[in-house]
Amino acid sequence: MANSKRVLFQKRRLRVRNKLRKVNAGRVRLSVHRSNKNISVQLIDDVQGTTLAAASTLEPSLGVVGKNNVEAAAKVGTAIAERAKAAGIEEAYFDRGGFLFHGKVKAVADAAREAGLKI
């Protein structure tokens, strides 16, 4: 019996997250979630289990509501980097989840790096 797309996605997500936990070194996790309509990112402290900062294309302040493209993802990446600096976070590790590192997911990471967040 073949695995469904959802099962394969969950396997990929857990494989990525477990590898990142091994090299964590006390940093926070920059987690990305991409849907068909939106992209959202969170800075998560796994030790305390809290979200420290978040950004999404659903926020009217970013000016990308209703857009789901690489430019919108880059704005979200820049916003999360600015919010991380405001929260006193200099570096994080990038958790792409089960998503491939290209397109919108890569745009978020590149924009966050350009805005000064060490990933």
From TrEMBL:
Please provide the Gene Ontology terms (biological process) for this protein. translation
Gene3D superfamilies to which the protein is assigned, alphabetical: 3.30.420.100
Q: Which UniProt keywords apply?
A: Ribonucleoprotein, Ribosomal protein, RNA-binding, rRNA-binding
- Answer whether the UniProt record assigns the keyword Ribosomal protein to this protein: yes
Q: Which InterPro entries does this one have? A: Ribosomal_L18 (IPR057268), Ribosomal_uL18_bac-type (IPR004389), Ribosomal_uL18_bac/plant/anim (IPR005484)
Source domain of life is Bacteria
> Does Chloroplast appear among the keywords?
no
Q: Which GO terms describe its molecular function?
A: 5S rRNA binding; structural constituent of ribosome
Please explain the role this protein plays, according to its UniProt record: This is one of the proteins that bind and probably mediate the attachment of the 5S RNA into the large ribosomal subunit, where it forms part of the central protuberance.
**Complexes and interactors:** Part of the 50S ribosomal subunit; part of the 5S rRNA/L5/L18/L25 subcomplex. Contacts the 5S and 23S rRNAs.
In the record, the note on similarity to other proteins reads: Belongs to the universal ribosomal protein uL18 family.
By what name is this protein known? Large ribosomal subunit protein uL18
Q: Which organism is it from?
A: Antarctobacter heliothermus
| Lineage of the organism | Bacteria, Pseudomonadati, Pseudomonadota, Alphaproteobacteria, Rhodobacterales
